[in-house]
Amino acid sequence: MDDKLNVLALYGGPYVSLRDALENDRKQLSLIKSKYEEAKIDAEEVLPQKFIVNSAFKAERKSYPIRWLIVLVTAVSSFLLISVGIIVYEQINKKDLK
Fold first, then answer.
1. pTM of the entire structure?
2. Cα end-to-end span (Å), the chain
């Protein structure tokens, strides 16, 4: 029993270190192998040079931008921007007067 414990004490640390290094190398090898296979497939794959495009046709009804919505959004955003500008201007004037 003492002989086995002495052998384990002598070679246990290096064995664990080598075992962990081997496991790490196996993981890296499998990762590199999968990346190699993907790169090999990408390099050997032939992409088609033809693109099929559907023929054009007239629209069923004409489409126009919704003008009332554009005007409404512009008016509301202008109002908000001017309101914020006036508030900031008033605050600056209040600080200058003090």
1. 0.40
2. 92
Longest dimension (CA), the chain: 94
**Residue pLDDT, tens place only, 2-47:** 787 777 777 788 888 889 999 999 999 999 999 999 999 888 887 7
* Measured CA distances, 7 to 16, 17, 48, 65, 88 (Å): 14, 16, 64, 85, 82
Q: Please tell me the distance from the alpha carbon of residue 95 to that of residue 61, in angstroms, as a whole number.
A: 58
Dist CA 52 CA 47 (whole Å):
14
pLDDT tens string 47-84: 777 878 888 888 888 888 889 999 999 999 999 999 99
Q: Tell me the residue type at 53.
A: V
The tokens of 45 are what? 């794959």
